[in-house]
Amino acid sequence: MTSRSPTPPGHAVAPRALSADVESFYHLAHGEHTGKACQGTACFAARHFNPARWAEASAQDPRVYCLGECFAAPAKGQTHPRPPVQVFSRHGIVLGRVAAGGARSLAAYVQQGGYAALAAALQDPPEKILAAVDASGLRGRGGAGYPTGRTRRAVAAQPAGQKYVVANADEGDAGAYIDRYLMEDDPHALIESMILAGYAVGASQGYIYVRLEYPLAGTVLQAALAEARAAGWLGPRVGGKNFSFELEVYTGHGSYVCGEETSLLRSIEGKRPEVMARPPYPTERGLFGRPTLLNNVETLVNVPWIVTHGGAAYAEMGCGKSRGTKALSLNSLFHRPGLYEVEFGVTVRHIVEEIGGGLRGGGRLKGVIIGGPIIGVIPPHLIDTPLGFEELAAIGAGVGHGGVVAFDEHTSIPALVEHVFSFGAYESCGKCTPCRGGSGRIEEIFTNALGGDATRADFQECRDLVAALKLTSLCGHGTGLARFAESILRHYPTEIEPCFK
Ligand SMILES: Cc1cc2nc3c(=O)[nH]c(=O)nc-3n(C[C@H](O)[C@H](O)[C@H](O)COP(=O)(O)O)c2cc1C
């Protein structure tokens, strides 16, 4: 499902049909995920104590890694009522409207102050938005934590001409369902944010790359785009000003690696979405070779608040170099799974014990992953670490996307390693050798180890492959797998080493 909006003159058009070669890259065809057992990490954590159930789920082909139903894991299809949503920060910047029941229609959004930030911004030069985002200290919420103001300035500084803004709504990190509910329950917030981004950097065309596994988000966004267009917020002369902007939904094809920026842009172009080396960065040569601002959904939806209240008010919240708030999605092993907005600086313990209410059924925490499977695991003795980019990186973990997946005492760490490397191998784009071949080899060794058939030489081979992944991968998929493995070796050696005789 790719909607077509009028493409502004001079802009390239995303092809509707894929060539056979490109199609062969993707795992899922449209609708194929429906009714399938989810094989994501939150569902692993919820099924692991029943090996037969997990084996049945993991035998499915094509595989489905995360349906955004982690609050009700183990999940099969998108049939659950939405999870609880609460704001634990001074301001409900990202989840405020979602927590209040959502604002799907234009009327509901406008009634809650929607499009006021855009209307006000259009009275001023784009520099005012750029300066507010700089002052806010906002950093990318898609995983890398790059300063958003810097990315915007880099695109704005490119010579005037065709430029694009792209919302990364691929949300493939198993355990995360933040962007899903932002799009389903507050679609105009993303649309307003995209128009603001276009105005700030001088782009007149935008794409929202929505993952295939979120069909409702796509449908809701299409309806909201039609309303926004009818109200004059899209098209020529946005809000009656000398600025035109068009926005289109592009539906992904079920590939995790397409969340990586260069892969995502190639996917929209209809090319085989293998990761590309950088530089050049998308800010310089992005979509169709043109300067492109690519941001995560949550990153984008912070900006209307920043424009209205000023960057300094935003920067008042947070810790260290992590300013503002972060939305978190908690998995079903918590007593209170759901979506929560917190200020940076709260401790992981606060998230686990106070917000999540500890583990369901009195389970004991064995570890927690924040931000997807390809990131470091936080063991119980480190949960007093504050939520912050540098603070979590210092213990080998990360903020990632903000999906919080807890594991209880029944989780087998070698089985978790097998699961993560199985995911890594399945979703590798295949461009780098250690990622293409090495991740599958580590999965195989751990399968053997779980069957009691792995040697010390196999263990050394795993270590060598992890070192190669870390050193030579072109993108965060390979380096993230290495980071995950290193954290396991550091924190759970007594569970890993006895598996190798
Ligand atoms: C394998 C891989 C998968 C990724 N998946 C996503 C994703 O689903 N959503 C996202 O916003 N960023 C994802 N990223 C990060 C993007 O490459 C990029 O850094 C981000 O979208 C930039 O936006 P931000 O600065 O607003 O975070 C992924 C990166 C890698 C390496």
User: Compute the gyration radius: what is it?
Assistant: 22 Å
Number of helices: 22
Order of strands in the sheet with most strands: 1-9-8-11-10
Write the CATH homologous superfamily of the largest domain.
NADH-ubiquinone oxidoreductase 51kDa subunit
Would you report the number of β strands? Answer: 11
How many structural domains in the coordinates?
A: 3
Which structural class matches the secondary elements? alpha/beta
Give every kind of bound small molecule, once each.
flavin mononucleotide
Our estimate of the beta-strand percent is 5-15%
Major beta-sheet overview:
5 strands, mixed
> Mind telling me the CATH class of the largest domain?
Alpha Beta
Under CATH, the topology of the largest domain is which? Rossmann fold
